[in-house]
Amino acid sequence: MTPVENIATSSKISRKVSPNFAKSEDGQMDCDKSQINPRLVCLLNPNSDQAENYSRLRLSLETLRSQSQSFVVGVTSAEKGEGKTLTAINLAGALARSPNTRVLLIDLNLRDTSTRVLDYLNLKTLSGPGITEWLDDALRQDGEPRVSFLPGFNLHVLIAGAKAGSPYELLKSSKLSRFMSAVRQRFDFVIVDAPEVLNLPDTDLISRLIDGYLVVVRADHTPRQKLAETFNLMQQDKVLGLVLNDAPWQ
Fold this sequence. Notes:
This protein has nine helices and eight strands. By secondary structure, it is an alpha/beta fold. Helix 9 links the parallel strand 7 and strand 8. It is globular.
């Protein structure tokens, strides 16, 4: 995958404190590299040419981020099948290559259980509640959602959990807003794997929690009309840029 970025030159970042965020240590997870999706090049082969392309995207985000504040970036696309989840994980992996940088990858796709972050990372044995279980009263579990640490990649991961029955209500909850404000105090970068834009209100709800979106566009796949519709639906000041995926020069 070869990302091509076109990042805006400014971003507004809010910084809030939430006393309700769990203070417990993150759970460490062993991650078998042989079982990880081979397209996660920034984790498996960080010095490859493909991974270096994500480093260009990393540089753009590092330039935008204020040194004293966290930067929360959503990764979305017009429709399914554009490669946004792989892009989100690779971008998080590229940012986490710096040993002094704390990076959190959050799966906020609460509807689709077929292309989850934990599947790409082969974390099917991950224990503890995800975002859905933590937010949904009907599935409530004690404590905060478990943020797991993958020491081999210097990467923290928060899974989505079970498929949400009412994702709209969960995403607009004040509980999620407080949690997202709290993670800004702990992490330098937060990468959010968000749902697709078309036919869903989710990206609008998530936009209030993040500093901006990267929109993944799959070369020779995304119709121009669909892409135009996507940008018409999004808040323009929340669009950081495009990531071109599966470009023909790969």
